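worker-03 picked up job from queue 'complexes'. Input manifest follows; two sequence lines, order preserved.
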Amino acid sequence: MPDTNQWFTETSDATGSGFALRVHRKLHEEQSQYQKIEIYETTDWGNLMVIDDCIMLTTRDNFLYHEMMSHPVLFTHPDPKRVVIIGGGDCGTLREVLRHPGVQQVTQIDIDERVTRLSETYFPELCKSNDDPRAELLFIDGIKWMQKAEAASVDVIIVDSTDPVGPGEVLFSEAFYRACHHALRTDGLIVQQSESPLLHRELLKRIYRDMESAGFAATRTLQFPQPVYPGGWWSATMATPMRAWPEPRYAEMEKIAGMRYFNRAIFDASLALPAFMTEE
Amino acid sequence: MPDTNQWFTETSDATGSGFALRVHRKLHEEQSQYQKIEIYETTDWGNLMVIDDCIMLTTRDNFLYHEMMSHPVLFTHPDPKRVVIIGGGDCGTLREVLRHPGVQQVTQIDIDERVTRLSETYFPELCKSNDDPRAELLFIDGIKWMQKAEAASVDVIIVDSTDPVGPGEVLFSEAFYRACHHALRTDGLIVQQSESPLLHRELLKRIYRDMESAGFAATRTLQFPQPVYPGGWWSATMATPMRAWPEPRYAEMEKIAGMRYFNRAIFDASLALPAFMTEE
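worker-03 finished. Artifact:
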């Protein structure tokens, strides 16, 4: 049993499991307008951000999640120029999106500016592209933004949200997906982080249903390792209004540098579904 | 922080991380001749086996590890008839191997008979093939068995060992791989569980080096999710004395029923290496 002074432990009632990281010290704690944000210095995983007692990211392993939330969907779209990130306040997804030279504008909309300010201090490597002239950072309600967005104005929407409890809950709803569908161009794509393939199977089914009801004709689920999230195995679900799934731009996957997990082989691997998922 | 009465937590000094499962109660504890073995009833993961304070398996997620330790190597071998499992006392790997109709004999060699006896009681579904006439269960030292094995008598060796500390340490050594190489037929294959791709990169490199020094000409690493092991992301390394890697028997992968993770797409996916591993 870890000494409570030396370990940060997140336990999940819903899954009956927990994950712990050994820490040197707490670097920061605050109650923002929206949530409690803590930053720890760990012994082996770099810095750790915790929101409302849930582990959000560490320096060591966030590359897995951020790369898989951005590159698969961007390489599946034929020519993404206009990208919107809902959530993603740590700016790690934004950094990955900006690696794509064809992207002309990325709007990141996180309701809580404090997440970004703390990321700039404690995860500066994730924020190094924030000054890119193509990046726009808004600190407002992402759902309202999406509801007012011009029809058919966006190529790719990345829903980089917290879990479907608290402030993130409304991002897992048919109404939100409907607003996204309206904002997307006809060949657009959305990707939503969709929790653990093993532990949150009902949620995954609900996401499929809700996306379908909202007008998305085709979906694909990506799976990838993410040690600090419950069960260490995570998923993201992509969807498009088009009936035919687009042909990914394989030839361009090796042309962008700086990725530590994603490559062409991992792209295909992430789309392979375990037997228990194909049966469902 | 979990209540120590309700959670079993394994923390790893080497990785600075830990994993916890909520438990109803401890079902059994004993000090065998070789190690401390505990069995818990968890709230959401079925039964849990712990050896020397390290989580070995749960009812809920062991299928991931057992399927990936057996099917990829068996489908890579052109015609596996004689299989040897070193370790694997819970019999989960044995059950998977026996799904292959071409396999004529499987010898499982675990030094600690108590692991198998407790698995029969608490994980009976893993032991349901133990009476198969093709199965032979030996409770002796696997290294000594391998050193005395007839040359070129085995098609596939599966090293289903504990971590490279304590009794399992000698199974991660050039000397052991040399004995395996001697026992394998010229087109034989070995697979060794090789820890976390993210957290044990030095160990993985050592395994490659040691296998090569022992005479194996080609290696391939498989990666797969395994929630209850450190970091939730695991690997196994296959090797063969042959210079050319064999063509997997893809056509037969869909012919065997009962798998919950493994299928043809997952086979290929498990061989995809993350960018940081291909660079190394």
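worker-03 released lock.
Chain B touches chain A through 47 residues (CB under 8 Å).
Residues 62-76 of chain B form the longest helix (15 residues).
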